[in-house]
Design a protein that fits this description.
heterodimer; A: alpha+beta; seven-stranded mixed sheet; about 35% helix; B: about 220 residues; alpha/beta; nine-stranded mixed sheet; 6 helices; 11 strands; about 25% helix; about 25% strand
Chain lengths: ~725, ~220
């Protein structure tokens, strides 16, 4: 028996959704309309499983210039300037074709930022892969790193930081999240809402081809599985040169006040950008596909409307200024065409010359998709596997070296040296030289700290506590460079929300994000949701990734992460009571289990304030937060970076109730490892644990003490490069 | 002194170079279609990916109107500094000897390196020159995928003998497999300099080093 699969199902719509479309639309949609509906009603564009949850997030704040709903968020940095930033995922394209998937992920997030009128000044990225002993993971890592480098380096935006974790649940479904930070003069910024009936709609940048058709629905809103090779044509191809030209062109147009509004073309191409512009402005739009510059002459109207060809921007222009706009596009040697007009019809009409090929109410298309309640069910215990790679009886020396050499903790120099981290001449702290990247903002006479964080393993252990920790980790990283958080962006990478466990993880994580941001007083100014991250073996670790931007008033006062002076006192600051739950050591021992201690958000926030104040006053010689691998790894990292050993006794942590092992390798929020003058540290209420100096890391824990040579610690920490020299 | 910084579609470091020049004098961008360099006393060709580096790095830029004017400017003895992509453009334009190939390990690399000043031009950039300090290298970043300097042995011998090797990478720091550790060269007249490393990113103590500023200062002496 042959079963005819309905067209709408093939495009990812349910039967009920299709019926609803017919009802709202008053008839069955034609092919063009169905293609458009299927994309804008996809999870990727409609947020239909997450939108209700996201209403919990605090979005208001004194410094917020633009919040959720715009192409990116933006916060006031002073002197008439704003910092725009956003993080976005390109997970499924990268899992299918890592180089182009990651490259176009960078391209897309850059466009989101310059669509506001902000010049991109930094990229950060948060990557997740399966374990490195897998050929597939090495291939995906190599491709993604090359792709990110290719795009960012070529366009001249500094890549200043990020993180890479390797965990088995990402084996099939890697994560590639890219964050872009930009700077704008607040008065020149522009919103995405179309306005002004009779205004022209101008398409700028690259011509439109058949690449990326259906990317948002077929690729981004479904689980990965067998036969993904066939999805390769849905991955877009990036051209950073084209983007560089359209970027400069758009910034010049905005500086000259020639655009009423501006929007990038991302997922679902013209359909979503024009549709969302019309929806935001409460207007209608007519688009003539015959005016769209094409790569292939015989493209169908539906292909033109849904193509995800990269490096395209859509602007709304007053008719009298169109010639000037086209001339500036010509100067930058980038394509431009007047393809439509803003109307008062409230309808999104697609024409091919005189022929009407699609006619949809904007409201039905953009806001008509039903929003679903997810049905969370807490799983019974640890739902992921365990694998033992380190014997429980290993000596502390071997344990420290194993942790330092474990792929998620080891130095990521191999990756970040492939990125231009200095272009723009703003980078005051390069990757791994401090906990957060630091960029000079001479426009406002200050600097910013930027960080991106998220530990999926800990979120898998406890979605609420793990997500709170991600926010705190980011805030702690900023505190280490003296930065006060101004706003947060996030990318929620989860499994299939229609299944009970991922639904529960998502629900818990969003509540935690809201609670942590409220407690810290940090507004969420934008974000992105990536669901259906599953492979044949099940879902990924739930991975909320948060990015924060913080203000540093005096660029001269920024700490680094390296021990600086022989004889300095080493001390702890903050409410740090580590346990082995969900730690890197628990992973190596195959002892992962559900549950984490609940972090004390207010106490950590107070510690961040202490740190920030101390750094700004120049009181610390070094500052590092304690995270993966616990105090032992934090000490080693400060020692390696400074080329100075240390001698430490963890007794103070023992007094807080930690076992020697928990004190050495336990994890949890709230710990800062600092060095400096003993008297000064005392005055900060810091707990002294030792001194900087020598060529070994010597640690006393209870009645045992051990030491590891700086050179062997360094050898373990720099072990990734050798592992990756043959990426296969 | 009045500086001109070339800007091609795809240039990345033109604003950084403009800033470095403006610390020492007046500076303006020169659009790739401009031919008129009147009033300009020194030219910087910045890093980036001119015309997308299509065909080969620098291969298209050398045919631009602005580069035609730069060739005349250089022939008249005007000082020209090419950085990274600018170095590649100058080699393509035959204003400098040699060529820049794909890095030995075929990856883009960004890293701070120490350079040993070698010829008369570079000697002017040695830190604390004449002071008691013993530091004999300058610290600047490199960042490129195609920075492996190459020339036939006969040419390498000739430029070494003629004082045209401006800088070498410090021992053990050659990041790309460049022949004889060459990081920068000059033409026979000494007024055209090409560097793979980026002095324009090393002009501010906040970003790590001010050694790069000495390179721009030395350019002023070439002009004088």
């Amino acid at each position: 028996m042959t079963v005819e699969v309905s067209k709408h199902r093939e495009l990812g719509l349910t039967d009920a959704e299709f019926e609803l479309i017919c009802e709202k639309h008053g008839r069955e949609p034609n092919g063009v309309e169905l293609a458009m509906f299927s994309l804008l009603w996809s999870e990727h564009c409609s947020y239909k499983h997450s939108r209700k949850l996201l209403r919990r997030l605090p979005t208001e704040g004194e410094r917020v210039v633009m919040g959720p709903g715009e192409n990116a968020g933006a916060v006031d940095i002073g002197n008439g300037h704003a910092i725009a930033f956003k993080v976005e995922s390109h997970n499924h394209p990268s899992a299918v074709e890592p180089f182009q998937g990651a490259a176009t992920g960078v391209g897309g997030i850059l466009r989101d930022v310059f669509a506001l009128g902000a010049r991109p000044i930094a990229i950060l990225d948060s990557l997740r892969f399966g374990e490195l002993d897998s050929v597939r993971s090495r291939h995906l890592l190599d491709g993604a790193v090359r792709g990110i480098g290719h795009y960012g380096n070529s366009i001249g935006v500094a890549n200043v930081g990020g993180e890479i974790y390797f965990e088995p649940p990402y084996e099939h479904n890697c994560l590639v999240n890219a964050m872009c930070v930009g700077i704008a003069e607040t008065k020149d910024m522009v919103r995405a809402a179309a306005a002004g009936v009779g205004n022209a709609v101008v398409l700028m940048g690259a011509s439109t081809g058949r690449d990326g058709i259906g990317g948002a629905s077929v690729l981004a809103s479904a689980e990965l599985g067998e036969g993904d090779e066939a999805k390769r044509p849905t991955v877009q191809i990036g051209d950073p040169f084209e983007e560089s030209k359209v970027l400069e062109c758009c910034l010049e147009l905005l500086e000259k006040g020639l655009l009423v509004s501006l929007q990038d073309l991302g997922a679902a191409g013209l359909t979503s950008s024009a549709g969302e512009m019309a929806s935001a402005g409460g207007v209608g739009i007519d688009i003539d596909v015959a005016q769209v510059p094409l790569r292939e002459a015989d493209m169908e109207p539906f292909e033109i409307m849904v193509s995800e060809s990269q490096e395209r921007m859509l602007g709304v222009v007053e008719p009298a200024r169109v010639p000037e706009v086209l001339a500036i596009c010509e100067k930058w040697q980038t394509g431009s065409a007047e393809i439509g007009v803003v109307t008062d019809s409230g309808r999104f009409r697609i024409l091919r010359g005189d022929e009407m090929v699609g006619d949809i109410a904007v409201e039905d298309l953009v806001d008509g998709c039903p929003l679903y309640d997810i049905e969370p069910v807490e799983p019974n215990g640890w739902a992921y596997g365990n694998e033992t790679t380190l014997a429980a009886g290993a000596t502390p020396e071997d344990t420290l070296l194993a942790l330092l050499g474990s792929s998620s903790i080891a130095s990521k120099r191999w990756a970040f040296e492939q990125y231009d981290s200095v272009v723009g001449s703003r980078t005051m702290r390069r990757p791994e030289s401090a906990d957060a990247a630091v960029l000079a903002i001479p426009e406002a006479g200050n600097a910013i700290g930027v960080s991106i964080d998220g530990n999926g393993r800990r979120v898998a252990c406890d979605p609420y506590a793990g997500t709170v920790e991600a926010v705190l980790e980011c805030a702690q990283n900023l505190a280490c460079v003296g930065a006060e958080p101004l706003g947060l962006t996030n990318c929620l990478n989860f499994g299939n929300p229609e299944k009970p466990t991922p639904a529960w993880q998502l629900d818990q994580a969003v509540t935690a994000l809201a609670d942590a941001c409220s407690a810290l007083g940090v507004p969420v100014v934008g974000g992105n949701v990536s669901l259906y991250n599953e492979g044949p073996e099940g879902p990924i670790y739930p991975t909320p990734v948060v990015g924060m931007v913080g203000e540093i008033p005096d660029p001269e006062q920024v700490a680094g992460g390296a021990f600086a002076n022989e004889g300095d006192t080493i001390a702890l600051i903050g409410p740090f009571e580590p346990t082995l739950d969900g730690s890197q050591l628990a992973k190596l021992r195959g002892e992962l289990d559900a549950g984490l201690p609940q972090p004390e958000i207010k106490a950590v926030a107070a510690a961040c304030l202490t740190m920030r104040t101390a750094v700004r006053a120049g009181k610390l010689a070094s500052a590092h937060d304690i995270s993966d691998g616990g105090l032992g790894c934090a000490l080693a990292e400060c020692s390696i970076a400074g080329g100075l050993g240390c001698r430490v006794d963890v007794a103070p942590l023992r007094e807080r109730g930690c076992s020697p092992e928990e004190a050495l390798f336990g994890e949890g929020s709230g710990g800062f490892l600092v060095s400096g003058d003993r008297e000064v540290l005392n005055s900060l209420g810091a707990t002294a644990i030792g001194k900087v100096g020598g060529a070994t890391i010597e640690i006393a824990a209870g009645d045992r003490s051990f030491s590891v040579g700086l050179d062997s610690a360094e050898g373990a920490w720099h072990s990734l490069a050798a592992l990756l020299s043959d990426p296969a | 002194m009045i500086w001109g910084v070339l800007q091609f579609p795809g240039s990345c470091d033109e604003r950084d170079a403009l800033h470095a020049c403006s610390l020492l004098g007046e500076a303006r961008l020169v659009w790739h279609e401009e031919r008129d360099l009147s009033g300009i006393e020194a030219i910087v060709i910045p890093g980036g990916f001119s015309y997308g580096d299509y065909l080969r790095a620098g291969a298209i830029a050398r045919f631009s109107p602005a580069m035609g004017a730069v060739a005349e400017f250089a022939a008249a003895g005007g000082p020209v500094l090419g950085i990274c992509n600018g170095f590649q453009v100058l080699c393509e334009a035959k204003l400098l000897p040699g060529a820049l190939l794909l890095n030995e390990d075929q990856r883009f690399l960004c890293r701070q390196v120490d350079l040993i000043p070698e010829n008369a031009f570079a000697a002017e950039t040695t830190p604390e020159r004449g002071s008691s300090s013993k530091r004999e290298t300058i610290s600047v970043p490199v960042k490129h995928g195609e920075g492996r300097y190459w020339a036939p042995d006969s040419v390498l011998d000739a430029i070494e003998a003629g004082g045209q090797v401006a800088y070498r990478y410090a021992p053990g720091q050659n990041p790309n497999g460049s022949a004889r550790d060459v990081a920068g060269v000059s033409n026979a007249g000494g007024n055209v300099i090409g560097l793979m490393p980026h002095p324009e990113h090393a002009v501010d103590p906040l970003t790590g080093s001010t050694d790069g500023l000495r390179v721009f200062e030395a350019m002023q002496m070439v002009a004088a």
